[in-house]
Design a protein that fits this description.
The protein is of the alpha+beta class. It has 7 helices and 16 strands.
Length: about 300
């Protein structure tokens, strides 16, 4: 096993992807199993996730033709809304649109990353108010190992527009932009990069496997939150080093920089362990040393 005296620069945000996370069982599963979860849009933090405005006009939208299988519930609603009326109104229109959006979102999977690791708000919102961690991925390796559509999220002042066309048992949601890769500009500071999976809408929801494996070499290290609990240090080091004992695995620690309104990302190595707050019990350096000694 290599000595952990190296550091790795994270300043080149075209090379890395970052996933903020609380330190819980789901995060441990990512580290142990090399798997990422693709959640439904309505499980994301943005209430307008994968949102679109359905229009009832003849305007041509030519960005995306999102095809879905028309199930019985949706088909019954279509009969009510499309029976000779181009502009259904009231409850029938609302019910139709809600069911259409449900079908679309039920068979979408989203895994969100970021291209930045030092944003104060991201650490607060997604890493359990700095008690969590941020996983560091090699972007190229991760992209090459996940079967998914992937790209940077675009941020705009408006929500995507779409029209719906029925052809037999197939529905066409024709949009003016990729609604699942577009967010309102309120979220632009997140610098999101996301992976999208579309699942077979001819199978039951409970048969969908929303876990996607990635290559072990795609994850290169962990940034610990400024308030990461001392009692979790040994656990996460054992997880990371035991899983990656044949390669160098990097550790960093985040710390608020109030002058810059950002987080400093500080490397942790055998020779450089820097904490801004005192620790109770064993020092982190000692835990790191003892863990490595036991593995060797």
């Amino acid at each position: 096993m290599k000595e952990y005296t190296e550091t790795l620069s994270l300043k080149n945000n075209t090379k890395w992807l970052f996933k903020y996370a609380p330190f819980n069982l789901n995060t441990i599963k990512i580290l142990l199993n090399n798997e990422l979860w693709f959640g439904k849009p309505d499980m994301q933090n943005d209430p307008n996730e994968a949102e679109f405005i359905l229009t009832y006009n003849d305007k041509d939208y030519n960005c995306l033709d999102f095809k879905i299988k028309i199930q019985e519930n949706l088909n019954n609603l279509i009969k009510n809304t499309d029976s000779g009326r181009k502009n259904p109104t009231g409850f029938e229109r609302k019910e139709f649109e809600e069911e259409l959006k449900k079908v679309v979102r039920d068979y979408l999977g989203i895994c969100s990353m970021s291209t930045v690791c030092d944003d104060i708000q991201m650490w607060a919102h997604y890493a359990d108010n700095n008690e969590g961690i941020c996983l560091v991925f090699d972007k190229k390796n991760l992209i090459n190992s996940i079967r998914a559509y992937k790209d940077k999220v675009t941020y705009s002042p408006t929500i995507a527009k779409a029209k719906f066309v029925k052809e037999g048992n197939t529905g066409h949601l024709i949009t003016d932009k990729e609604f699942y890769m577009d967010k309102l500009k309120n979220w632009k500071d997140e610098s999101e990069y996301r992976f999208i999976r579309r699942y077979n809408d001819r199978i039951p929801q409970n048969s969908i496997n929303r876990l996607e494996s990635f290559r072990e070499k795609a994850i290169v290290g962990i940034i610990l939150g400024e308030r990461f609990k001392h009692e979790n240090f040994k656990t996460i080091i054992n997880l990371a080093l035991l899983k990656n004992f044949q390669k160098t695995f990097y550790f960093w620690r985040s710390a608020k920089n109030l002058n810059k309104n950002t987080m400093d990302i500080i490397p942790i190595t055998d020779k450089y362990v820097n904490f801004h707050t005192p620790l109770k019990g064993y020092e982190f350096e000692h835990i790191l040393y003892e863990t490595k000694r036991q593995i060797i």
